[in-house]
Design a protein that fits this description.
This protein has helices at residues 14-21, 23-27, 39-49, 67-77, 92-100, 113-195, 201-210, 212-244, 256-266, 268-271, 296-318, 323-328, 359-362, 382-393, and strands at 3-8, 31-36, 55-59, 82-88, 105-109, 252-254, 281-285, 292-294, 332-339, 345-352, 397-402, 408-415. By secondary structure, it is an alpha/beta fold. Helix 8 (212-244) crosses helix 9. The protein starts with a strand and ends in an 8-residue tail after the last strand.
């Protein structure tokens, strides 16, 4: 990407002169020049695009707003934007003032273009270093916050899973014992019925009142229902443990499908129907994959972010549609997994049939703090952190394919270890 340089000068011929002198760098896309005829125009450009301007080069003496005033406003707007001032050699007083106000350097008119190129390269190198340092610091801070967040969440989820396991273990064990006791009691009742076919009117009335035969027939179903309930709690507990895995010191072989399924189970309450829409349908198209060597806890976090975003997109798509309209075109999240033909990478695709995104939005979705959600509802960190986890931590790739009104598909590629297929 070329470095963006803003030139500010009120001489009409200045732009042509600069473009002529730096035509090779422009063709090679080393530099991209933006021109303003005065300080007011330059400030408007900076206010609209300051994140992408690397260097400002401004004349000091201009109408409407002088270079000194512009220098001060640029510094207030973004102190990382470097400013080089231009003026006649005789104007040393203003040049000294500019340097005292924080100008990076100064050049005198008429311009020596060799000096100008050297000054531009020095300034851009310093800007590049500052931005790299800021990015490293920002990434470190974000990672630290996220690690603490995931560690706390992991401990909480693991603790809940542990606390669930103890009472469920008691219930499961007692169900087996209760089933044996009930079988024995039923056998005793049947034994009494065989040996005392006429127990008397009072006992017969009581048996009729409690509907003994119904109890005998229904009891196995009651036991099976209790057993199914404890099995479901055990499944939930196992999913919580799978999701909470936070191995950070070393990668381990991990069943990707277990991670996705545990995430879906945790998000189950958000997939259910509510007063605004029917349930969101989940379509799973899993291939027979080998284990992936990864950090399971971090990868589960990526699944959580992407699936949660898909749910929010479908909630947005449901607004303004009635129940019948949604049933005719149901909300669907499709999750596919497969290996690339070279068998070197596993692909996880998470797509929805929601509102989709414009090209302009897609260009920014992985940027730090970028969000399309209303103020107070989105942090702009979810996709940014997901991109870091997939690309930087795992050496993979994360990208999005989308069009307005055609849904969105997020595609994760993770290097895959060669091993036996999972059953």
């Amino acid at each position: 990407m070329p470095s963006k340089i803003l030139f500010v000068d009120d001489e009409p011929s200045f732009e042509k002169l600069i473009r002529r002198q730096f035509r090779k760098q422009i063709r090679a896309k080393e530099f991209e020049f933006i021109f303003a005829s005065n300080g007011v125009e330059a400030l408007e450009i900076l206010q609209g695009d300051r994140r992408h301007i690397d260097l400002t080069i401004t004349d000091i003496n201009m109408p409407q707003m002088s270079g000194l005033t512009l220098l001060e406003k640029v510094h207030d707007l973004d102190p990382n934007i470097k400013t080089v001032v231009l003026s006649a050699y005789s104007d040393m007083k203003n040049i000294r003032t500019a340097m005292n106000q924080g100008a990076f350097d100064f050049l005198t008119k008429p311009i020596d273009f060799q000096d100008l190129e050297i000054t531009i390269n020095r300034a851009l190198e310093q800007v590049k270093q500052i931005r790299q340092n800021e990015e490293q610091l920002r990434d470190a801070q974000t990672q630290l916050i996220q690690n603490e967040k995931m560690s706390a969440l992991g401990e909480l989820v693991a603790g809940v899973a542990h606390e669930i396991n103890n009472p469920v273990g008691f219930i499961a064990s007692n169900i087996e014992i209760a089933e044996d006791y009930i079988k024995n009691l039923i056998e005793v009742v049947k034994f009494y019925q065989q040996n005392f076919p006429d127990p008397g009117a009072a006992i017969l009335a009581k048996l009729e009142e409690v509907d003994l035969q119904y109890i005998i027939n229904d009891m196995p179903e009651v036991i099976d229902s209790m057993r199914e309930g404890t099995d479901r709690i055990c499944t939930l507990s196992n999913s919580l443990r799978t999701f909470s895995r936070s191995d950070t010191r070393a990668k381990i072989a991990f069943n990707i499908h277990e991670g996705i399924d545990s995430t879906l189970l945790i998000l189950k309450h958000r997939l259910k129907g509510n007063e605004k829409r029917p349930p969101i349908e989940i379509k799973k198209e899993y291939s027979n994959l080998s284990p992936v060597v990864c950090y399971p806890g971090q990868l589960n976090q990526v699944f959580m972010n992407l699936i949660a975003n898909a749910i929010e997109a479908l909630d947005e798509a449901s607004e303004g549609r009635n129940w019948e309209e949604i049933l005719e075109n149901p909300n669907i999240i499709t999750i596919r997994t497969y290996a690339r033909e070279d068998n070197e990478r596993v692909v996880i695709s998470i797509s929805d049939n929601g509102p989709g995104m414009s090209e302009a939005v897609m260009e920014q979705i992985f940027e730090y703090l970028y969000t399309t959600k209303p103020v107070g509802t989105g942090t702009g960190l979810g996709l940014y952190i997901s991109h870091q986890i997939v690309v930087e931590t795992h050496g993979g790739n994360l990208y999005c394919v989308s069009e307005p009104h055609r849904g969105a598909e997020f595609i994760i590629e993770i290097p895959m270890e060669r091993s036996q297929p999972l059953v």
